[in-house]
Amino acid sequence: xxxxxxxxxxxxxxxxxxxxxxxxxxxxxxxxxxxxxxxxxxxxxxxxxxxxxxxxxxxxxxxxxxxxxxxxxxxxxxxxxxxxxxxxxxxxxxxxxxxxxxxxxxxxxxxxxxxxxxxxxxxxxxxxxxxxxxxxxxxxxxxxxxxxxxxxxxxxxxxxxxxxxxxxxxxxxxxxxxxxxxxxxxxxxxxxxxxxxxxxxxxxxxxxxxxxxxxxxxxxxxxxxxxxxxxxxxxxxxxxxxxxxxxxxxxxxxxxxxxxxxxxx
Amino acid sequence: xxxxxxxxxxxxxxxxxxxxxxxxxxxxxxxxxxxxxxxxxxxxxxxxxxxxxxxxxxxxxxxxxxxxxxxxxxxxxxxxxxxxxxxxxxxxxxxxxxxxxxxxxxxxxxxxxxxxxxxxxxxxxxxxxxxxxxxxxxxxxxxxxxxxxxxxxxxxxxxxxxxxxxxxxxxxxxxxxxxxxxxxxxxxxxxxxxxxxxxxxxxxxxxxxxxxxxxxxxxxxxxxxxxxxxxxxxxxxxxxxxxxxxxxxxxxxxxxxxxxxxxxxxxxxxxxxxxxxxxxxxxxxxxxxxxxxxxxxxxxxxxxxxxxxxxxxxxxxxxxxxxxxxxxxxxxxxxxxxxxxxxxxxxxxxxxxxxxxxxxxxxxxxxxxxxxxxxxxxxxxxxxxxxxxxxxxxxxxxxxxxxxxxxxxxxxxxxxxxxxxxxxxxxxxxxxxxxxxxxxxxxxxxxxxxxxxxxxxxxxxxxxxxxxxxxxxxxxxxxxxxxxxxxxxxxxxxxxxxxxxxxxxxxxxxxxxxxxxxxxxxxxxxxxxxxxxxxxxxxxxxxxxxxxxxxx
Lengths: 265, 552
Known about the structure:
A: alpha/beta
């Protein structure tokens, strides 16, 4: 890829599930290769929908989506070979063992048997799963499954990695390792599209932060730029300012007072 | 077993390549499917280690073999090999079709592994073919068990050539059924818009079920009784429309050593049609398959459907359920059973079968339709009406235990519920009211309209019988909380036997009732007896304790 050319291009991306309400109301975004993009927004803002469109899991949308220079509506198959995805939900065949699951994926990505076994072995032992490589995953904890999902998303050495809340369930040590891996992958020229709610991770890991709310991008820039723009200190504050969610204390208070029984009647 | 299947398929690699299927990916996908099936099955067995059930698929096959022996005997009884084969193939094909429609359509349209596979580079054709081959493997196991009787009897009577020819025809029969139904499903995906498809498929299921069952009821009437005694069979124009005849013709002709022009034509249809269907499915319809699966997946966050009218379950629950937990379960099961796509996909076809059976049973009289209709008040056909309201109950009793979201069942154990039996009983009451009672009321109004007030005692007895049947059938299932078990492919097949066995029970009740109508005051005397049985049955189910609930 030409480093000057964006690796992901979204133009006027709109998505509606029922033809009336739009989940995405015209997203425009260019992502340069070798960057870590933080894509954040409140619940239901359209983060997962955007990602699912870019990886070809939502075929119906309007607007233009180009990934790796290819139009996703027409070349989904070619795009899928070069991207990795960590879904929000821990979706895997949990009656298989990690080794079996990774070997299966290797066949789908057409990686030679020896190579996939080597990669799977290395990655599993680096993530502390060496002793569990041949046990069924239905006995795994959430964190262990998450580790397998992260390995599974990278096993074919993708050019772009889409991650939806990838650190959920991981302990602090593991989080640090994954963050470092992301930084090193970016240094190697890989692009990472990182969706999350956890602000301090996004703040530290991402080169650029895109905030989405109600289907539109409301802020876009480096952390410093966003800070300068809204005079906030932490990303959390910037986030709440931009997404208009204020009065948290009042909401909390009303929440608590919901326990009060009605006096009348 | 998995390895054996995959090795055997490797021999047909060229065929898959010819159909532009990515063979290594196909093989990997099929390996995953079969391995997962196998392990799910095993883990279920392990969890119930206190019971003797080790491999339910074997049980299914044993029962199918047993059933197959009965109609396999036809090959000895009916002098014409052609006629007997037509009957046997009809039997096998209908059973296969029914099993396909009610159990395996959900396998074809399964969306649970979308999140694992749909962003991977697997083309739509390979994906569809994997699903279809997976289904065919199960279908072959079922048909082989069903036809074992015929194979043994036929080989004894006609020699080894019969065995070979019959097995080949059998494969074509399975291919024909699987691909012709896939043509319908995939075509439906193509023509109906993305949003409508989810609803259309449900109505189509009912329609397909009615066609399969209706076709089966219709066939013996085409084959007039005189044919059964003759050695030779006269081919008429409509013979070409009976799929079993296409497969029976070559076996018959080869064994007799002469191939008539008609038999040749039938054979050609029998071989060509499955291949053409296969070609159409794989070449033209499969490319849209992935997209359809993505559409079928649960609605996106933006398409919230506003639910109106929750009043009905609340209203009913006040009358039928006294305990709060029972009432809550009643409403929960009512709501979920009306919304869960898989639940509907599996229970709706039963309506089709029941409709076809009831229509034939009431109207199948000599002298044409109008005469049959006019003569209706003089018959006891109202019993058919009344009892066919019960046919949905066995199926739904089975189904409410299963859900894709079975993990959500943790909530039951987290609640302060002393007796989980109350939850289970609440669910059964929903079934009695929603899937039995409402239909029953409609049918009894119709019955009163045609037969008048003199049958009111029969209506009462039929209703009580329905309630007793629901509880009685629920007793062996009382260790499962509503929607607390996962679906599994092998288990789909296992349920198949349940369905066949359970279909007999409403019929048996109906016949007992019929017998009682000949006894003076029989029906009136039976009323209190049946009413008294309800209470202890309800008590048994309601007192199920946590100890006997299977762990999730």
